[in-house]
């Protein structure tokens, strides 16, 4: 139990508990013993102790959350179409939570490999071999939380894969009979690394061959981060981190120009904000005018998720 959540939520436990007992302590119970009962109820989930969250991942049974099912449905349609695309938005815009909800929503239809480049050191991008091993290990570890077979999961890591050419064939074999959805969060952590450009180029080539009926690869790929990776090469050229090779046809050719435009509005509408406030009102019975307050929050934050949560 997190101390912050407990201290903020204790009054709610007291009020709700006394409502259920007509304001009376159970016979023979002291206040101290009653607190133990209340903590037990919290741990068993008997009373909803959700709170507003402005850091990291939002989890439905722990936090008050906006209902973004409409957004997930739109993204799901893109995935069903086999699209490759990027979700690039500012920090605290709900990208990580969106990917988590997609994983939980689509696990029956797809084998979902949800990974993040957050925390990977520079050594993982130093050479193609290092990157291949790091990538395969991330995918394998992610698939352990799916219903994929143990044989399939362990097969994702092969220490003999040391080049992108070998990784290309490896992915072909593992995606031949499965619809594998690849989600990569914090993808721009590697935005100044040429090895990552080669990885994107490999995925691009496999996608084009798949469309021509000449390869098997990931059914859909979503890259999430702050920076739009479609312009990654241009950014590296400007910063002096990348020098185009003479054989390249176009100076600013993107290795991710296969990505379709991501047009889903990630900001929160007043109606969406209202779904979160309705959860809070259901728990705390403050008597707030949910519709009016939702409009006010939207006007104040312009629907920016972080600000919307921060100002509750």
Description:
The chain has helices at 3-20, 31-44, 69-80, 95-106, 128-143, 150-154, 164-175, 194-211, 232-238, 270-284, 290-301, 305-310, and strands at residues 84-88, 111-116, 180-185, 220-225. The chain is α/β, with parallel strands linked by helices. It folds into 2 domains: 1-49, no CATH class; 69-238, Rossmann fold. Strands 1-4-3-2 form a 4-stranded parallel sheet. α10 crosses α11 (290-301). The protein starts with a helix and ends with a helix. Mean pLDDT is 79; it is low at 1-46 and 307-312.
Number of helices: 12
Total strands: 4
**What is the overall silhouette?**
globular
Based on helices, strands and strand pairing, what is the structural class?
alpha/beta
Q: Strand-residue fraction?
A: 5-15%
CATH fold assignment of the largest domain: Rossmann fold
Unreliable runs: 1-46, 307-312
Overall pLDDT score: 79
- Within CATH, the superfamily of the largest domain carries the name P-loop containing nucleotide triphosphate hydrolases
CATH architecture of the largest domain: 3-Layer(aba) Sandwich
Cα gyration radius (Å):
24 Å
- CATH structural class of the largest domain: Alpha Beta
The percent of residues in helical segments reads: 40-55%
How far apart are the first and last residues' alpha carbons, in Å? 22 Å
The largest sheet, given as strand count, sense and whether it forms a barrel, is: 4 strands, parallel
Q: Can you list the strand order of the major beta sheet?
A: 1-4-3-2
SSE order:
HHHEHEHHHEHEHHHH
Give the count of structural domains: 2
Assembly category:
single chain
């Amino acid at each position: 139990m997190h101390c912050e959540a407990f201290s903020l939520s204790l009054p709610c436990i007291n009020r709700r508990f006394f409502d259920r007992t007509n304001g009376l302590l159970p016979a023979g119970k002291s206040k101290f013993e009653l607190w133990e009962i209340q903590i037990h109820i919290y741990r068993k989930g008997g009373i909803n102790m959700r709170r507003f969250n402005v850091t990291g991942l939002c989890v439905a049974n722990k936090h008050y959350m906006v209902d973004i099912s409409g957004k997930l449905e739109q993204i799901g349609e893109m995935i069903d179409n086999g699209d490759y695309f990027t979700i690039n938005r500012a920090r605290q815009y709900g990208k990580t939570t969106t990917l988590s909800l997609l994983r939980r929503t689509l696990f029956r239809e797809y084998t979902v490999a949800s990974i993040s480049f957050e925390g990977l050191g520079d050594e993982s991008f130093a050479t193609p071999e290092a990157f291949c091993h790091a990538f395969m290990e991330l995918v394998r570890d992610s698939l352990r939380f799916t219903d994929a077979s143990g044989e399939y999961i362990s097969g994702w890591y092969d220490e003999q894969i040391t080049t992108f050419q070998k990784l290309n064939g490896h992915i072909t074999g593992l995606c031949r009979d499965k619809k594998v959805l690849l989600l990569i969060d914090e993808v721009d952590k590697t935005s100044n690394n040429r090895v990552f450009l080669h990885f994107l180029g490999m995925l691009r080539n496999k996608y084009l061959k798949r469309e021509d009926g000449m390869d098997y690869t990931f059914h859909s790929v979503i890259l999430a981060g702050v920076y739009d990776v479609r312009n990654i090469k241009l950014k590296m050229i400007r910063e002096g981190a990348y020098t185009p090779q003479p054989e390249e046809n176009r100076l600013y050719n993107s290795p991710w120009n296969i990505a379709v435009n991501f047009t889903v509005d990630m900001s929160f509408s007043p109606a969406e904000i209202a779904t979160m406030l309705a959860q809070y009102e259901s728990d705390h019975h403050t008597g707030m005018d949910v519709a009016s307050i939702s409009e006010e929050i939207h006007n104040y934050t312009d629907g920016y998720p972080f600000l919307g949560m921060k100002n509750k």
